[in-house]
Design brief:
The chain is built from four helices and 15 strands. By secondary structure, the protein is of the alpha+beta class. The relative contact order is 0.20. Bound molecules: FE2/S2 (inorganic) cluster. FE2/S2 (inorganic) cluster binds next to helix 1.
Length: 234
């Protein structure tokens, strides 16, 4: 019989942390930008020890970020989940290009800004995807979008074109905006609501880390408008 603790999973505690289990590696992921402030590259820093299980702060007030230190109880944190449990593909905007299709679920935007490429926005690039350079740039823009807002689809095969992530967690930092970003969940890790429902399994998605999202548990970029800085972050 398989040991449940070894299966990658995230369980949301009511008004509390995200319980991560299954030996999922975690790294700091920093957004590097160009001179216009658009995301151009992720810088990964492996600075967290491997742990079989850990609890990540969702309220934004832990003094031991990214881990929960129990502060959510002292402050009476309201972590009510308001996001749709349903599938991402229920209602995204669809952009049809000659070679690619793009799906866009704007409510998931984490404002990482990789969709604005030096060649143009991923939407325009999709519409010109018979050009190989623009096609490749559009795909890269969707791969670098941590929130899973954007997915490129091969129109000939009807299949999504997604990065081959292993289960892993990224703690996003955005020094160009002087803010701490959300929790990047990669590689199809199941996320279970505090009521036991399952969110749609995604290749990548971002969970709120500042406690201010109006689309919990997912990030809605509130960390940028609120100027969120995690405590205990270099
Ligand atoms: S969720 Fe526990 S301290 Fe933030």
């Amino acid at each position: 019989m398989s040991d449940d603790k070894n299966i990658p999973k995230i369980k949301i505690v009511k008004n509390g942390p995200y319980l991560v289990s299954g030996n999922i590696p975690m790294a700091k992921q920093t957004i590097l930008v160009d001179n216009q402030g658009h995301g151009v590259k992720w810088e990964e820093e492996t600075c967290f020890p491997m742990k079989e299980q850990y609890a990540l702060c969702s309220c934004g007030e832990s003094s031991n970020s990214p881990y929960c230190d129990g502060t959510h109880q002292k402050i009476g944190y309201d972590g009510t989940e308001t996001a749709s449990i349903g599938d991402y593909l229920n209602n995204p905007q669809v952009i049809n290009g000659p070679d690619l299709m793009l799906t866009d679920a704007q409510q998931l935007c984490a404002l990482a800004r990789f969709c604005h490429r030096k060649e143009g926005g991923v939407w325009d690039l999709t519409e010109q995807s018979d050009n190989p350079e623009f096609r490749a740039s559009a795909i890269q823009g969707t791969w670098d979008c941590p929130a899973g807002r954007l997915i490129a689809w091969n129109k000939k095969t009807g299949k999504s074109i997604e990065p081959p992530y292993e289960p892993s967690i990224g703690i996003i930092e955005d020094p160009a905006k002087n803010v701490s970003g959300p929790i990047w969940v990669r590689g199809g890790i199941p996320i279970e609501s505090c009521d036991g429902s399952q969110y749609a399994v995604r290749n990548q998605v971002t969970l709120c880390r500042c406690g201010k999202s109006r689309n919990k548990p997912f990030c809605d970029a509130s960390h940028v408008s609120k100027g969120y800085k995690a405590k205990n972050t270099d």
